[in-house]
Amino acid sequence: MEKETSLFLVPTPIGNLKDITLRALEVLKSVDVILAEDTRTSGVLLKHYEISTPMKSYHAFNEHKTLESIIRDLKKGKSFALISDAGTPGISDPGYLLIREVLKEGLDVEALPGPTAFLPALLKSGFPCDRFVFEGFLPHKKGRKTKLEQLSQEERTLIIYESPHRIKKTLSQICEFFGEDRMVSVSRELTKKFEETQTRTAREIKDYFEATTPKGEFVIIINGKST
Ligand code: SAM
After folding, report:
1. pLDDT, tens only, 56-101
2. CATH architecture of 5-111
3. Ligand 1 atom nearest to CA at 118
4. Distant-in-sequence, close-in-space partners of 167: CB < 8 Å, separation ≥ 6
């Protein structure tokens, strides 16, 4: 007998509202509750698609606290969809903790395929995409240099998420740790009006973004170390 799904992980657009699957819309309409990282942000998406499912806030600061009541409701037969502000929940976003606990309870988790920022950036870089390493955000302080040193030896294509506040520092450290000639691709504002991808040497990319005021959200792709 097929188990009834109680928790759906639903990817949402990373900029362009059209980037949502028919199945994602169907699930968001049919579940009892949508767990949203920021109910205001997700409210825009839900309004656009005329979805009136109740939302409950679920984010990095309350995920431990709310876990128990969500599990209790799941056991009572309530269905939930977890969404994040953008992209796939659990990918540099809350989700892991809940997924682990739901599976531990023997309940079913359904992960819908859909938008995430790193895949279009990886493909647009033109670097090998048969094998790659997703690092997410680098540590801000402790362990950052050790991590950069370790990553500089990686032969597979590397993927790093970055915010506009740290992009200049990170590009400068990529020059320092990976060498100025390493090929790097930076994608920003993917699927949005000012989407841009620059693929150049580490030095050229650093100079390019130093000459501008970097706006938006960034994905950095670094070509793996050649053997
Ligand atoms: N869950 C998301 C996903 O599946 O990609 C990632 C969320 S994480 C909190 C936010 C980071 O994702 C940003 O700092 C940026 O590195 C990346 N990102 C999200 N949307 C983006 C976009 N439209 N263009 C470029 N990078 C984006």
Report:
1. 999 988 988 899 999 999 999 999 999 999 999 999 999 999 999 9
2. 3-Layer(aba) Sandwich (3.40)
3. 5
4. 186, 209, 214, 218, 220
For 118-222, CATH number? Answer: 3.30.950.10
Average pLDDT over residues 28-39: 97
**Pocket-testing residue among 166, 189, 219, 222, ligand 1, by greatest number of atoms within 8 A of Cβ:** 219
Q: What is the mean pLDDT of the chain?
A: 95
Global confidence as pTM: 0.96
Pocket of ligand 1, beta carbon within 6 A: 14-15, 84, 86-88, 91-93, 116-118, 161-163, 187-192, 217-219
Q: Atom 13 of ligand 1 has which residue's CA nearest to it?
A: 217
**Domain coordinates of the chain in residue numbers?**
5-111, 118-222
Q: In the predicted model, is pLDDT for residue 158 greater than 50?
A: yes
Q: In 68-189, where do the E strands start and end?
A: 80-83, 109-111, 132-137, 157-162, 183-188
